[in-house]
Write a structure and sequence with these properties.
The complex is a heterodimer of chains A (about 280) and B (about 350). Chain A has eight helices and 15 strands. Chain A has helices spanning about 35-40, 80-85, 105-110, 125-135, 160-170, 195-200, 215-230, 270-275, and strands at about 10-15, 25-30, 45-50, 55-60, 70-75, 95-100, 115-120, 145-150, 175-180, 190, 210-215, 235-240, 255, 260, 265-270. Chain A is globular, with a radius of gyration of 18 Å. Chain B is α+β, with helices and mostly antiparallel strands. Chain B has two domains: about 5-60 and about 90-210, no CATH class; about 215-345, no CATH class. The model of chain B has no long low-confidence stretch (mean pLDDT about 95). The chains are: A alpha/beta (about 280), B alpha+beta (about 350). The complex binds flavin-adenine dinucleotide (FAD), iron/sulfur cluster (2 copies) and FE2/S2 (inorganic) cluster.
């Protein structure tokens, strides 16, 4: 019997500090056994449990796209026991990955549609995965316009800065990067909160889906903007977070009403959420 | 296979025959209360018990279970790589379990054994265990099994059902597993007419003593949010001290935590029973807690059993009416009262 609690052993291939406050690092992981990589087939929007022997496991969104082969990446914010320890680990260290877990953004439904991606802070990880996936030459024609609104408190807190700059140069994606404020005279992009920038750029709701991930406050103020733009609740998609352990719907920890965020989620439409208790 | 009978005097021989071939678990008196434990001598099994205080869920889902082990020795190439912890899955007989508790395992199966994922330890133990139940001739005042689709003589979750008819036990063999286990024992007789009539009488008086204490069905029809937002939760939660006794004792409360423990340069990943009654259960690393209030946690426990589980699995309530939570709650919170409130026709929103 396959044991769904057993992590695949992986080696840390590189560690990149993403933000100037040094609270976010991206870990590039390589499977020790090639057959495990074959088994780890994922879709953008899924997550995995990162396992550190002696410390425990943490659920983290998969930041790479399945179109990137040979490794997987996770961007981790330093908050508590496991994340602090992980931040002190180095290239070459051995750890574990269990997954892929959860559902994913509805790629079948998104086919042929315009996709508006709205992200805030460090919740940009699975959105990065999604953008890389859609921009892949094999996939780009399957989607209509791609619009991205991504904000952070200051320029130094944006993730994946090199990629953002590269996407800015492309014609097949509309990038709207924004910061709450900056004293950098060379800042080329927007200044303002994500809801305001979304309102100003007003991506069309026609034939479009919106995917929104970020701090609760950002989501709270952006949802009315999307509704005003004409996005119906069944075409607004979000990814939720709950404290997790098993990640497979068994330990009973992460439910919202009848749904387990780890297994039935983490991706839900606003319409689905409207039928569940507001307890997250 | 028709029912069989054995006299009380010869029954220990049956237990002995089982012990020669299987690991046998039975109710054993420990201090003031009975609990299920592996027996080494036939006389340790005490089938004169009413029920255990702690449900027997630990037979399949131990209170603390080592999942994996690993080395943390610096130069060990296997350091930090998790290995399955060895476990004994040799065939086992659980003797004298109550029908409600056996039924509870079936309700739990839906959680542990799904199409997407199978909990390997739960499933293996279920596969290698035979349940020989004991009908309840005298249910307690806190029992309400018949109101939730099971009962004192319910065979649904069992492989064999024993009935204590005073001078002896009848056995009804229900499954192939049951047949295999009974097949290795000898000394049984056929059931006489008097014994058979006596058994029927016991069944009837046990069932009648329970009666129907509420109607669960209206809850199924109700809207989840209507129940979630009902005003009665404030009264239900008022006296609760969040001790977690209810979830600890309950046969259908399976929630667990996973923790790592390190002993020198070795470590274990273990799982431990946990409880939705504790604030830490849902506490995010960021400090946010979606169920920081006691009311939210009390509501979660009842809503999970009586609304979320039924809605998700269409398998009835996640409660078998064993009455443990009613009997041992220090402040007398009674799930039967909560069911009545939840199923009442006028649930006024807060
Ligand atoms: C689906 C999902 C995707 C996530 N993606 C990311 C990501 O891409 N990057 C990132 O930095 N963070 C992400 N998080 C949050 C991350 O899981 C927590 O910050 C992390 O578990 C905290 O662990 P800790 O040991 O440092 O904290 P502690 O406070 O010491 O927590 C102890 C344990 O509780 C559990 N836990 C605590 N907080 C959370 C939480 N918010 N969510 C789930 N489990 C928790 C974990 O098992 C953790 O090990 C995600 C959470 C979920 C549910
Ligand atoms: S046993 Fe009673 S007081 Fe204790 S947590 Fe349960 S309902 Fe609350
Ligand atoms: S909720 Fe109470 S009565 Fe129901 S199965 Fe659990 S302990 Fe028994
Ligand atoms: S994390 Fe265990 S049920 Fe979701």
């Amino acid at each position: 019997m396959n044991n769904p609690y057993l992590p695949y052993p992986v080696r840390i291939d590189s560690v990149v500090t993403e933000t100037e406050d040094r609270n976010l690092k991206t870990f590039k992981l390589v499977f020790l056994n090639p057959e495990d990589e074959q088994k780890f087939k994922y879709n953008p929007g899924q997550f995995a449990e990162l396992s550190i022997a002696g410390l425990g496991e943490i659920p983290i969104g998969i930041a790479t796209s399945p179109t990137e082969k040979g490794f997987i990446k996770f961007t981790v914010n330093k908050v508590g026991k496991v994340t602090n320890h992980l931040h002190n680990m180095k290239e070459g260290d051995i750890m574990g990955v269990r997954g892929p877990l959860g559902n994913w953004y509805p790629w079948d439904a998104l086919e042929g549609k315009n996709v508006v991606i709205i992200g805030g802070g460090f919740a940009f990880t699975t959105l990065r995965s999604s953008i890389v996936y859609m921009l892949d030459p094999a996939n780009r024609s399957r989607f209509g316009d791609i619009t991205v609104v991504y904000g952070a408190r200051s320029p130094g807190l944006l993730l994946y800065k090199d990629e953002l700059a590269a996407w800015e140069q492309r014609k097949d994606i509309n990038m709207h990067i924004t910061v709450d404020g900056t004293d950098d005279p060379n800042w080329k992009y927007n200044v303002g909160f994500v809801p305001a920038v979304t309102k100003q750029k007003a991506p069309s709701a026609e034939n479009s889906y919106a995917i929104i991930c970020g701090p609760p406050i950002m989501i709270k103020f952006t949802l009315p903007v999307l509704t005003e733009l004409g996005f119906p609740p069944e075409r607004i998609i979000s990814s939720l977070e709950m404290r997790m352990k098993c990640g497979i719907g068994i330990c009973g920890r992460c439910n919202i009403g009848s749904e387990y965020v780890c297994k039935d989620g983490p991706v839900f439409t606003l319409e689905q959420l409207s039928k569940l208790p507001n307890e997250y | 296979m028709s029912d069989i009978y054995i006299s009380r005097g010869k029954f220990p021989e049956i237990i002995g025959q089982l012990m020669a071939r299987y690991r046998v678990y039975a109710p054993v008196l420990k201090g003031e209360y009975h609990e299920f434990a592996k027996i080494e001598k036939t006389e340790e099994a005490d089938l004169g018990y009413q029920n255990t205080r702690l449900s027997p869920k630990g037979l399949f889902h131990p209170h603390a279970e080592r999942m994996f082990e690993y080395s943390l020795v610096k130069d060990d190439p296997q350091a930090g790589i998790l290995k399955e912890a060895p476990k004994d899955f040799s065939p086992r007989v659980v003797l004298g379990i109550r029908p409600c508790d056996a039924k509870a395992f079936q309700l739990d199966d839906v959680n542990f054994d799904t199409t997407a994922y199978q909990d390997p330890w739960w499933v293996r133990r279920r596969q290698t265990t035979t349940l020989i139940g004991l009908a309840c001739n005298e249910p307690c005042g806190t029992c309400f099994c018949t109101s939730l689709g099971t009962g004192p003589f319910d065979t649904a979750g069992l492989d064999v059902l024993l009935v204590d008819t005073g001078e002896g036990y009848t056995a009804q063999v229900l499954t192939q597993k049951g047949k295999d286990v009974v097949g290795i024992t000898s000394g049984w007789e056929s059931v006489s007419r008097t014994v058979s009539e006596k058994m029927e009488g016991l069944r009837k008086s046990a069932e009648d003593s329970l009666g129907r204490q509420f109607d669960f069905d209206p809850i199924k029809q109700k809207d989840m949010l209507e129940l979630f937002n009902a005003s009665f939760w404030d009264e239900v939660q008022f006296a609760c001290i969040n001790c977690g006794t209810c979830t600890f004792l309950c046969p259908t409360c399976w929630c667990f935590d996973i923790q790592d423990e390190v002993w020198g340069d070795k470590g274990d990943r273990i799982r431990l029973w946990d409880s939705c009654m504790f604030p830490l259960f849902t506490f995010h690393g960021s400090g946010h807690n979606p169920r920081s209030q006691k009311l939210q946690r009390v509501r979660q426990r009842f809503m999970h059993k009586l609304k979320y589980y039924p809605d998700k699995y269409h398998n009835g309530a996640a409660c078998v009416g064993c009455g443990r939570c009613v009997k041992f709650c220090p402040v007398n919170i009674d799930i039967r009262e909560v069911v009545r409130r939840m199923s009442a026709t006028c649930v006024c929103p807060a």
